[in-house]
Design brief:
This protein has two helices and three strands, in the order H-H-E-E-E. By secondary structure, the protein is of the alpha+beta class. The protein has a domain of 84 residues. Helix 1 runs antiparallel to helix 2.
Length: 123
C-alpha cells in the first residue's frame, strides 16, 4: 500500500475561528444573563408589591419602593420610566426603560417594557 507523506492535515484556521466564536458567545452570556436575571427579579418584585402592599400605600410610595429595588439591582429606572395608577380595586404599573450593555467597542441598548394590571388583595 502506498503511503502519502505529503499530506499532514494541518488546518488551524478552523480551530481559531471556532475558539473565537466560543469566546464571543461566552462574553455575550457573561454580559447579558445578569441583566436578564435582574430584570426578572424586578418584575417579580413589582408583582408582589402591586398585589400585596398596594392597599396600604399610595401610588407615590409604591413607585418609590419599585425605584429603590431597581437601584439595588443596578437597573436604570427613574420616575419618568414608571407609571403607577390605582383605580378602585385594581392597580396598573407600566415600566419602560433601556438598559445599556457595554461590550468592547459596542454598546447594546436593551429595551424592556412591562405592563402589570392586577387586583389589589386585601389581607
Amino acid at each position: 500500500m502506498a503511503r502519502r507523506s505529503g499530506q499532514r492535515g494541518e488546518g488551524k484556521a478552523g480551530c481559531i475561528f471556532w475558539v473565537a466564536v466560543l469566546l464571543i458567545t461566552v462574553l455575550a452570556c457573561w454580559k447579558l444573563i445578569p441583566v436578564k436575571i435582574n430584570n426578572a427579579e424586578l418584575v417579580d418584585y413589582i408583582t408582589e408589591v402591586a398585589q400585596f402592599q398596594s392597599q396600604s400605600k399610595t401610588q407615590a410610595q409604591i413607585a418609590d419602593l419599585i425605584i429603590a429595588r431597581a437601584m439595588e439591582l443596578n437597573i436604570p429606572v427613574t420616575k419618568e420610566n414608571l407609571v403607577v395608577v390605582r383605580t378602585g380595586e385594581r392597580i396598573r404599573v407600566t415600566l419602560d426603560y433601556v438598559h445599556p450593555v457595554r461590550f468592547p467597542g459596542y454598546t447594546y441598548n436593551w429595551h424592556f417594557h412591562h405592563e402589570l394590571d392586577r387586583p389589589i388583595f386585601i389581607t
